[in-house]
Write a structure and sequence with these properties.
Blueprint (H helix, E strand, L loop, with lengths): L2 H26 L10 H9 L2 H23 L2 H8 L1 H12 L7 H20 L2
Helix pairs in contact: 1-3, 1-5, 4-6, 5-6
């Protein structure tokens, strides 16, 4: 994998993690409404939630960056690498959102990381 592809993959991972955290923070900050769930009211809330739009923007840029990655490297190599975003989301959930992460989840995160390293090392 070339340095430019690795940099683009890192950008994709960062955008995915930031987007997921922005979605979670944005939804958590939406005010509750009286009378139960009403879809039209929900969409009005979403339209005025800047963190949700931040998440959407991250995903729009991610889409373009991912297309560039796919044009430069084999899918069987880059798709496992992008799965590191799962690890980033677990870490971001802990650091930014204050979520409790069990030892089993940390172990799973380490296994995913090790698997990605193995795939990327053999795909060079």
């Amino acid at each position: 994998m070339t340095p430019s592809v690795m940099l683009l993959i890192a950008l994709c991972i960062a955008l995915d993690v930031i987007g997921q955290i922005a979605f979670k923070l944005g939804l958590d900050r939406l005010p509750d409404h009286v009378g139960g769930f009403r879809l039209s009211y929900f969409w009005r809330q979403i339209a005025g939630a800047p963190l949700l739009w931040c998440g959407v923007s991250c995903y729009a840029v991610l889409f373009v960056a991912w297309l560039e990655v796919l044009s430069l490297a084999p899918l069987s190599l880059v798709f496992p690498a992008i799965s590191l975003s799962y690890c980033g989301v677990v870490l971001g959930g802990r650091l930014v959102l204050g979520e409790t992460v069990s030892r089993r989840r940390w172990l799973g995160t380490l296994v995913v990381t090790a698997g990605v390293m193995l795939v990327c090392a053999t795909g060079a």
